[in-house]
Design brief:
- This protein is an alpha/beta fold and about 230 residues long.
- The chain folds into 2 domains: about 140 residues, FAD/NAD(P)-binding domain (3-Layer(bba) Sandwich); about 80 residues, no CATH class.
- The strands form 3 sheets. A 4-stranded mixed beta sheet has the order 1-10-9-8, with no helix packed on it. The protein has a 3-stranded parallel beta sheet with strand order 2-3-7, covered by helices on one side.
């Protein structure tokens, strides 16, 4: 038996660094948000990562007189291990590079502190910013901010599956406290177009944090009625 569905604007599956960043950014843009995390606490693999954040064009670089360009950052990414570039998406690499500085500064705005930058070969310039004191700071600050903004975080959400209508994703089904529950998106064409516009930055933040923290994000999904 499935209980009455909970209706929200955005459902995020996965409460690691990327999922929490998506939740915070969506909530900052006045969306109602529900985060579903299968473990009994948030954090995911972000809490196990080194916590470094490579970025181009940051205030930390400017303070040290480093002039950097996103195009150079994207080019240097290829130098790490060309064998890993199977299925590479150059446009996504460039998006990551272009949004990296703003995302780092956004993380600072929610209380995450960094030091650096440090040189990390084969990067030509110092781009590695290290989180203080460790990677758990990402999820601690993001979780606090998400809750303050009204996001609902549900832990122990097992067996999540997408709910679809035709080709459209309309929600998520999960087992919580031994009961099947549904979390569905609120649909209104005018509101949906506005929310998509407002949440584009949130999606960019999700991408950057998923990559920059080294997190293995397996199931962060947006339910926006696409």
């Amino acid at each position: 038996m499935v209980n009455e569905p909970e209706i929200v604007d955005v459902v995020v599956v996965g409460g690691g660094g990327a999922g929490l960043a998506a939740a915070v950014s969506a909530a900052q843009n006045r969306a109602s948000v529900c985060v579903l995390e299968k473990q009994d606490r948030v954090g995911g693999s972000t809490n196990l990562s080194v916590g470094s954040f490579s970025a181009s064009g940051t205030r930390f670089q400017a303070r040290k007189g480093i002039q950097d360009r996103p195009e150079d950052y994207a080019e240097d990414m290829v130098k790490f291990d060309s064998k890993l570039l199977t299925g590479d998406a150059p446009a996504m690499r460039l998006l990551l590079a272009r949004e990296s500085a703003e995302t780092l500064h956004w993380l600072e705005s929610v209380g995450v502190a960094f030091t650096g930058p440090f040189l990390e070969p084969p990067h030509r310039l110092a781009r590695m910013h290290n989180v203080i004191p460790n990677s758990r700071a990402y999820t601690a600050r993001l979780q606090t901010t998400a809750r303050r903004l009204g996001a609902r975080i549900i832990t122990g959400a097992k067996d999540t599956e997408l709910i679809t209508e035709g080709e459209r994703v309309v929600g998520v089904r999960a087992a919580v406290d031994g009961e099947k529950r549904e979390y569905r998106a609120r649909f209104n064409d005018a509101e949906r177009r506005l929310r998509r516009q407002r949440l584009r930055r949130a999606l960019a933040a999700w991408l950057i944090i998923a990559v920059a923290t080294g997190a293995c994000i397996l199931g962060v999904r947006w339910v926006l009625g696409q």
